[in-house]
Amino acid sequence: MPVSMILGTQWGDEGKGKIVDLLSDDADVVVRFQGGPNAGHTLVVDGETTVLHLVPSGILHPKTDCVIGNGVVLNLDGLFQELDELKSKGVNTEGRLWISDRAHLILPGHRALEAHEEQGAGAVGTTLRGIGPAYRDKMARIGVTVGEFLNKEAFLTALARQRVWRERLVPSLPEESIDPDQVEAQMGVYRDRLKPMVRDTGLALVQWAKQDRRILLEGAQGTLLDVDHGTYPFVTSSNASAGGACTGSGIPPRMIDRVLGVTKAYTTRVGLGPFPTELGGEEGEKLRAAGGEFGATTGRPRRCGWLDGLALRHAVRINGLDGLIVTKLDVLSGYETIKIATAYQCDGELLTEFPAGIGALEGAEPVYESFPGWSESLDSMRHWDELPQTARNFVARIKEITDVPIHWVSVGQAREATIPGPSLETKVRVGR
Ligand code: IMP
Fold it and tell me: Is 21 a catalytic residue?
């Protein structure tokens, strides 16, 4: 069955959007399975930039169906704003964007709650899109699904049920964010427009896979932000690793043929939490400026540092990666020396596996391998053999450290700035 998956191996922002867009050329269906409008997937096609938050990155390919799966949490105002922007760019989404009836809604109360929670101590540095509260309600069994929203009576009943719980726990939320009639007045306007897009997407996906339609599962965020396998509690509230693709799409594990991971040639992180290879001061700023490292969703400056080999091997293991795509190699041009962490010194101990505890990560001193850099600009290079030997050595070392083939190396934002890696003789395809 031709089903492939693309995941982030770091703290998000690895450049997955561009890679999914490229692979979509070859896919019949692209599926988002977790996260929500906290994601920001940037695509550059013919010099024009499109940033997607909810809509799968395959949407720019006119023949590709796109699915927002049951594992996603979505805000309807954001969704329709995104669809209007796509329409204004001439992208038709009608009859090819499908939304799961089981997906949960981000409600006004969720955003109000998060704004309240993220003030002061205990903050995670979230995107403030209501992601955490929406997933929390889903797990607490007081969430509201897209299916319920389509029926006004069911929606009002679900909101009333949620309100009872909300008032017990958080008595101070603004009335307009929890009163069912006021919420209906804000959100009901989207009902008729949403209806034709909603279906049992899990059923459709399995049927499509059986018909040999090529399906690409598009991860958002990254493995280190995964609620189970990331740097808890400084994580997002969903499973951004491979397991989340099954629960969040309804595609059973044995239908998945291939799992690819995306890593930057260095590391970035937005929000709070440990980051052992972070570069401070001028060094960090230099990398941020070279990579244009500002959040696609919030515009926040991203924290920057060297590639972390322990974290990458953790992601390879958790996701069972079949291949890696290294992005933003071009950003490292001009560095005399480039580094990769291959171990941490922690409390007098040498760690070679990525530890679970925040304490260990905060106290970790990276042990680096250093590589000579290159001065050439890479962004016009299109073949592996054109890359400077030092750049090839660096990528080859990533392959050795992870024991995973490097499928592609990306040297610029444009679709064509993507070089098949040393492990790849033929074009990467979705499915076998
Ligand atoms: P939340 O997902 O808004 O709850 O934020 C939780 C953490 O995940 C914060 O550190 C965010 O900055 C981070 N995060 C969420 N989505 C993304 C993303 O798409 N890229 C990078 N970081 C993200």
Answer: no
